[in-house]
C-alpha cells in the first residue's frame, strides 16, 4: 500500500465522529399483521411449523405464528389452527417454541468459487505483523514437505507506513516460495524465492500497466507486492494448477458452513481466475450430489478490456436457467479501493491530490458493453468502490436504458464506499440496488487508519451511506463479498446485521459510531437488506427473500428474537435450523 503519511490513529478520527457512541440503537420491530393461507387447509404438508414468531419480510412487515411447506414451496403462512389442519401422517411437525423464523439469508455479493483459489493454507487475519509472521513460520514448520506455501487474509493495516516487501517474508520462510492473499483479494504478497521461481524480475512487464502490476523499488525491481487480480493470477499460476481438483477441494468445506450461518442464496459476483464453465460445472456437481446448500445466482466477471464480455455472458445465461445454479448478469470491475489509490473518487484523494487512477476498463468500453448487454437483457452489476465509479456505472445504466426497449432490469452497484449526494436519487430513478457490506460499517483498524488519510474528514462522515440510500428511495442490499474484505473476511449475515444496526465493531459498544446515530439501520431494515433487498437486486424477489405463500421454502430459525435483544448482541444469536428448497440443510436442537 502506498501510504506516504503516517497513518492516523483511531483517536484522530474522534473529532469528526458524531456523539452518542454509548447509546443503544433502536430495534423498532415491525407491526403485526395476519397473513393468510392461499392453499386449501385439507392438503397435507411435508413440514408444519407452529408456535413461532415468524417475521415474513413481506410488503407489510407482517408477523405470523405458523408456516407450512409442501415440496419446495411455502403453502401456508398464518395462525396455528390453519397450519395444524395441514398435518397428515407424513408431516413433520416442528414446534418453534416461540423462536424467531426468518426467510433464509440472501447474500447480495458473494464469491462461491473464489475460496477454491484463495482459501488454501493458514488464515492470517490478525492486526499484528509479528503474529502474522509467527503463524506463517509455524505453518511452514508443520508442513516441511510442502513445496509451495499459500496463505490468505492479510490485512493491509498491519503494514504500517509504507508497504510490504519480500524481505519481511524471507526472514521466516527463505527457502520455499510463499504467496499470501491480501484480505481484500485485490493484492498479493510474495517472498524472494517466489519471485525467483516465477521469473519475476526487473524485465517482467506489468500485466495491465497502471491497473494490475508489480510494485517496484526505485531501480525498477519488483518488491514482492502485487496489485490486482490479473497480475496476482499470473504469478499464482506459476506454482499451482488452478484446476477442478484444486478449486473443488478449496470449496467443499464451505457450503455446510454457509447453511450453518443461515445463508440460502447468494448473488455470485464472479468466478475470477477460473474457467467459467469449470466453475459452473463444479457447482452443478455439488448440486447433483446434494452438497450444494445454497442457490447460486451467478454472473460473468469482466475485468479485461480486450475481451468482449457480452457473448460470453449471454451464452452462460442461456445455458444456465434451471436448478440451483443460474446465471443472469454481467459483472463489471470498475475500480480498486482507497488504500492503493486505485478507487475512483469525484473529489480525488485528500493526501495525494495529483493521483489520477484509471478505471480497470475504459469508460467508453464499459458504456458500449453495457448497452449491448442490456439489449440482451443481461443485468448489469458492478464493483464500484469510489463515488466516481458509482457515477460512471449509473451513467452506463442510464445510457443502456435510453438506448434499449424497456424491461425489468436490475442494476446493482456494489461496495459503493461513497455515493455522491447528487447521485443518490438516481438509484430510484434507474431501479438500481445499492449493495454493500455490513461488516465494514465501523471504525475497524482499516477504516480508522487508511480511509481518513485518503478521504479526509468531511467524506468520512458519509462512508457507506446505506441509510441515506434508503431515505432516497433506493433498494438496499447487504452482501459480505466473502472471501474478500477490507478488514475481516466474514460471511456470517448475523455479524453484518449487527454492525449495520450499530455502526460499531462486534463486541465494542463504546467505540465511535461510524457516521453517527443517523447512519444506523433499524433491525427490520438490516434484516430486509440481507433477505428481500438482496433478492430484489438479483431479480428473484418473486421466488425468495420473504416468507409468503407460493415462494420457495427457504427458511431459518434463530435461538433468539433479534427484535427483543440488545442490537449489539445480535451476532451472538445462533441459527438452529436452515431449510433451502424444502430440504433441511442444517439443524441443531430443533
UniProtKB/TrEMBL annotation:
Pfam families (UniProt xref): Amidohydro_3
Keywords associated with the record: Signal
Signal sequence range: 1-19
GO molecular function, one term: hydrolase activity, acting on carbon-nitrogen (but not peptide) bonds
Record carries keyword Signal: yes
Protein name: Amidohydrolase 3 domain-containing protein
Tagged with keyword Lipid metabolism: no
Residues covered by the Amidohydrolase domain: 94-586
InterPro entries linked to this entry: Amidohydro_3, Metal-dep_hydrolase_composite, Metal_Hydrolase, YtcJ-like
Upper lineage: Bacteria, Pseudomonadati, Pseudomonadota, Gammaproteobacteria, Cellvibrionales
Amino acid at each position: 500500500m502506498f501510504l506516504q503519511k503516517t497513518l492516523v490513529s483511531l483517536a484522530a478520527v474522534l473529532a469528526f465522529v458524531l456523539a452518542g457512541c454509548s447509546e443503544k440503537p433502536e430495534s423498532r420491530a415491525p407491526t403485526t399483521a395476519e397473513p393468510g393461507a392461499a392453499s386449501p387447509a385439507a392438503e397435507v404438508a411435508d413440514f408444519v411449523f407452529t408456535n413461532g414468531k415468524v417475521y415474513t419480510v413481506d410488503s407489510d412487515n407482517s408477523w405470523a405464528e405458523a408456516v407450512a411447506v409442501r415440496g419446495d414451496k411455502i403453502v401456508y403462512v398464518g395462525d396455528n389452527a390453519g397450519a395444524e389442519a395441514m398435518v397428515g401422517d407424513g408431516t413433520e411437525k416442528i414446534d418453534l417454541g416461540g423462536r424467531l423464523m426468518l426467510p433464509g439469508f440472501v447474500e447480495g455479493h458473494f464469491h462461491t468459487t473464489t475460496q477454491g483459489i484463495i482459501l488454501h493454507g493458514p488464515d492470517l487475519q490478525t492486526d499484528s505483523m509479528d503474529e502474522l509472521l509467527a503463524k506463517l513460520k509455524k505453518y511452514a514448520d508443520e508442513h516441511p514437505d510442502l513445496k509451495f506455501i499459500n496463505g490468505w487474509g492479510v490485512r493491509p493495516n498491519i503494514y504500517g507506513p509504507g508497504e510490504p516487501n519480500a524481505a519481511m517474508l524471507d526472514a521466516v520462510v527463505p527457502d520455499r516460495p510463499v504467496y499470501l492473499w491480501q484480505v481484500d483479494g485485490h493484492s498479493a504478497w510474495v517472498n524472494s524465492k517466489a519471485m525467483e521461481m516465477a521469473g519475476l524480475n526487473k524485465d517482467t512487464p506489468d500485466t495491465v500497466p497502471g491497473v494490475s502490476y508489480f510494485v517496484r523499488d526505485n531501480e525498477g525491481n519488483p518488491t514482492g507486492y502485487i496489485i490486482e487480480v490479473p497480475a496476482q493470477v499470473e504469478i499464482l499460476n506459476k506454482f499451482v494448477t488452478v484446476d477442478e481438483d484444486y478449486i473443488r477441494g478449496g470449496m467443499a468445506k464451505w457450503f455446510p458452513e454457509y447453511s450453518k450461518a443461515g445463508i440460502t442464496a447468494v448473488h455470485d459476483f464472479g468466478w475470477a481466475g477460473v474457467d467459467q464453465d469449470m466453475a459452473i460445472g463444479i457447482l452443478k456437481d455439488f448440486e447433483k450430489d446434494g452438497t450444494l446448500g445454497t442457490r447460486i445466482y451467478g454472473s460473468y466477471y469482466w475485468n479485461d478490456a480486450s475481451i468482449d464480455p457480452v457473448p460470453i455472458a449471454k451464452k452462460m445465461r442461456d445455458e444456465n436457467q434451471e436448478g440451483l445454479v443460474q446465471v443472469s448478469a454481467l459483472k463489471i470491475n470498475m475500480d480498486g479501493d482507497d488504500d492503493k489509490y486505485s478507487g475512483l473518487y469525484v473529489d480525488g484523494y485528500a493526501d495525494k491530490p495529483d493521483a489520477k487512477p484509471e478505471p480497470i476498463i475504459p469508460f467508453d468500453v464499459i458504456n458500449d458493453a453495457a448497452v449491448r448487454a442490456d439489449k440482451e437483457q443481461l443485468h448489469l452489476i458492478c464493483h464500484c468502490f469510489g463515488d466516481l465509479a458509482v457515477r460512471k456505472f449509473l451513467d452506463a445504466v442510464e445510457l443502456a436504458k435510453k438506448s434499449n426497449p424497456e424491461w425489468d432490469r436490475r442494476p446493482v452497484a456494489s461496495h459503493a464506499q461513497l455515493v455522491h449526494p447528487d447521485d443518490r436519487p438516481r438509484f430510484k430513478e434507474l431501479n438500481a440496488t445499492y449493495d454493500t457490506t455490513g461488516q465494514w460499517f465501523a471504525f475497524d483498524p482499516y477504516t480508522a487508519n487508511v480511509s481518513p488519510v485518503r478521504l479526509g474528514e468531511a467524506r468520512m462522515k458519509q462512508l457507506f451511506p446505506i441509510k441515506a440510500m434508503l431515505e432516497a428511495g433506493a433498494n438496499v442490499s447487504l452482501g459480505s463479498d466473502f472471501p474478500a474484505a477490507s478488514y475481516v473476511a466474514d460471511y456470517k449475515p448475523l455479524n453484518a446485521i449487527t454492525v449495520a444496526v450499530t455502526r460499531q465493531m462486534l463486541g465494542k459498544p463504546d467505540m465511535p459510531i461510524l457516521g453517527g446515530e443517523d447512519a444506523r439501520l433499524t433491525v427490520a431494515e438490516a434484516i430486509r437488506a440481507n433477505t428481500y433487498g438482496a433478492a430484489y437486486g438479483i431479480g428473484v424477489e418473486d421466488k425468495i427473500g420473504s416468507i409468503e405463500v407460493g415462494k420457495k421454502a427457504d427458511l431459518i430459525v434463530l435461538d433468539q428474537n433479534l427484535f427483543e435483544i440488545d442490537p449489539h448482541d445480535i451476532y451472538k444469536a445462533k441459527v438452529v435450523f436452515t431449510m433451502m428448497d424444502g430440504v433441511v440443510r442444517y439443524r441443531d436442537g430443533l
